[in-house]
Design a protein that fits this description.
11 helices; two-stranded antiparallel sheet; mainly alpha; ABC transporter involved in vitamin B12 uptake, BtuC
């Protein structure tokens, strides 16, 4: 098998990592029109929950993932109740200022509690190593990431596009007054949506740390990549975020392998070309 397939595999795994961290923002931003720049703070929280349970309490890696999801979901509901709901009808600038302030608070809190060093992550033996196929080595953990992202995509598409819940959220966003008149509990619905988006961010952060590491700058470093994925994929489209993550992940990895002089610039060039071609994103609805 030519080496290019190894590059494609690594790019696909990195793309799935970006998708897992960004899909929650696709749900909240695309369905609720709320600019939540604090999304990666929930991902960072999920990562710190995982490393704390593993390093301090000896939990197995897979057992920490549901806890990371729940912790990030609970934090997102708390912030939604205290702050976000007051800004649903505010301008995008006001939403950005609020949520970027939360990012800086979360970064400072993580640095105060855990220090500025990168946290050690010890994966279980069955996720280490690689599988050799036709002369190429495929890392087991990256295969696990790809499988997890595929499963989450299927579950989300069904939940958002083909259920009563997804229809109620879209109705509440389009016309809250009418939705309340039809008996929809808009407040609870928005809280559930934020819990879903935040929980998915926490899960993505927990899965990401074994590949990209974890330190207090995580929430700011990967916010840029998450916003790129959501913008290129198109607002309100989970399938779009999935496709954009694959394209951007493969492009970034190919650039680092074949054009190292460009470094990480290639992903931005690909973003510019795609948005010039389709300003609303690959599967954008508006």
């Amino acid at each position: 098998m030519p080496p290019v397939f190894g590059v494609l595999f690594d790019g696909l795994a990195y793309g799935m990592l970006l998708f897992l961290m960004s899909v929650g923002l696709s749900v909240t931003l695309g369905m609720m029109n709320f600019v939540n720049l604090a999304h990666c703070s929930f991902a960072m929280l999920g990562g710190y929950v995982t490393v704390t349970l593993m390093n301090a309490f000896g939990w197995p890696f897979l057992a920490t993932l549901p806890v990371a999801f729940i912790a990030a979901a609970a934090a997102s509901v708390l912030l939604e109740r205290l702050f976000f709901r007051r800004f649903y009808n505010a301008t995008e600038l006001s939403q950005c200022l609020l949520t970027i302030g939360i990012v800086f608070v979360s970064v400072a809190a993580a640095a105060y509690i855990y220090g500025t060093d990168e946290q050690p992550v010890h994966l279980p033996a069955y996720l280490l190593g690689s599988i050799t196929f036709m002369g190429l080595d495929f890392a087991i953990y990256r295969i696990f990431l790809i499988a997890a992202a595929m499963l989450i995509t299927i579950v989300l598409v069904v939940a958002v596009e083909a259920t009563r819940f997804g229809a109620q959220v879209r109705a509440a966003v389009n016309n809250q007054r009418m939705a309340r008149g039809l008996g929809i509990d808009v407040d609870s619905l928005f809280a559930i949506t934020f819990a879903l988006g935040g929980g998915l961010a926490g899960l993505g952060g927990a899965l990401a740390i074994a590949m990209v590491g974890l330190d207090p700058s995580f929430a700011l470093t990967y916010l840029i990549y998450v916003l790129i994925v959501v913008s290129v994929g198109g607002l309100g489209s989970i399938a779009g975020s999935f496709a954009a993550a694959i394209v951007l992940g493969v492009s970034d990895m190919a650039g680092k392998y074949y054009v190292p002089a460009l470094g990480s610039i290639l992903i931005y060039l690909v973003m510019m070309v795609l948005l010039m071609w389709r300003p609303t994103g690959l599967f954008g609805r508006r």
